[in-house]
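Reopening this one. Same input as before:
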Amino acid sequence: MKRKIFTLFMMMVLLFTSVSIVSYAADKDTLIVALAAEPKSMDPVASNDVPSHCVYLHIYDTLLQRNKEGKLVPALAVSWEQVDPLTLILHLRKGVKFHNAEKFTAKDVVYTLNRCKGAPAVMAYFKDIDKVEAIDDYTVKITTTKPFGPLLGYLAHKGASILNEKAVTEAGDAYAQFPIGTGPYKFVEWKSGDRVILKANNDYFGGKPATENLIFRVITEGTNRTIALETKEVDISYDIEPMDAQFIKNGGELDLYEQPSLGINYLGFNTQKAPFDKKEVRQAIAYAIDMPSIINAVYLGGAEIANSPVAPGVPGYTSTGKTYNQNIAKAKELLAKAGYPNGFKAKISLNDVSVRKNIAVILQDQLKQIGIDLEVEIMEWGAYLDQLSRGKHDMFLLGWVASPDCDVFMYALFHSSNLGSAGNRTYYVNPRMDELLDAGRTNNDQAQRNIFYKEAQEIVQEDLPMYILVYPFVNAAAQKNIKDFYLDIENEHRLYKVSKE
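Same output, byte for byte:
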């Protein structure tokens, strides 16, 4: 009954605040998608976050992309060959135009990748590129400083979305608000805190999009995203809360999509800040946590306990790292050894996501058992990422979604060259880790790479710069009339072929 009353109340609110959107929702040529957080930027090198990727992947194209099965396939590059360990040649697609009518050529690839090399948010993926050269208008040569095993995968990363130099230069500092790409949709408008509106690029080389208009709504409260589906205000909603997922499964009026993802959810520690600079403190916290109760209470079965910073199924994943089951006596012993027999006060930071808020409340209760008084700080998504990038935090809750390569999981998160916005938000520095990760990315033999990554994963589980909580499932829900939607393994769903009956 409470659920029905709340739903009716929200229907009234939505009716008076979103009449124009509701009218859009009834239009079969308009697809409306609810996001859990607002994109931070439409400039691919400005931020490496999933909400931004989910929107602008429809505006831009990359040289390669991953298909449903996660395999690399042609996009703006139609073919490629590794001519020697340091040299990659790419042959580009002809006849493609940017949304500003400029022709796509090799110079755009040169400009884009050189820009990536110097951008803090994505440079971890591209800094081993030595030179990018245009052999002719439709041939590019990439030379690396050393053998670079993950290079092809990184050319499919959203941060390497191909830009038009003229568009970026003319827009200047405003470019992130007015993006130009070659993708299936053109940018129309970004109403901060509310929506991003895109319009079909009918000349797209991959074929005309299935719907003329694509609108992304920012609905940060999980229950409100589900209610927006129930009231048909939106067609698709990403990141359904576990309780709502159960409701949708049992209701039968909406379709729920759910599968294991290539992602992790973790509790991060600022390892450069006392008391989290001591391994014993980090391990004590891990021993104080009862993960099965969190999975049951928060995820409602929509996640699996993690034992590595790499998701199962990724080549190089190992389950041999140290595991932590709740042991309060052990936790207290480690805190005393670290010099904190009576515990301490600390702050845990997170953005406004119900799952993270619920985890934080449980952690507050569980850590009290070892004398840790935890204050919960909830922040807006962009401000939260900025704080983590400045290293002002104590503990934090965050996730990481990656491609099927250990380098994507490990290098950004744990290499000392990537502190802050590049990915290493725990500010973890370990020379041996750097050696292993450098060795892993400069080797093209997967069996050898697996040896390096096995040791690296074991170090993470021992040093614990972050405590990997779970491997979460990725999900979304949609109206029954939605066709050809599928979940992307990187949680960045492609919509240009999705239609409404």
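So the earlier flakiness isn't reproducible anymore. For the record, DSSP finds 17 helices and 20 strands in the chain.
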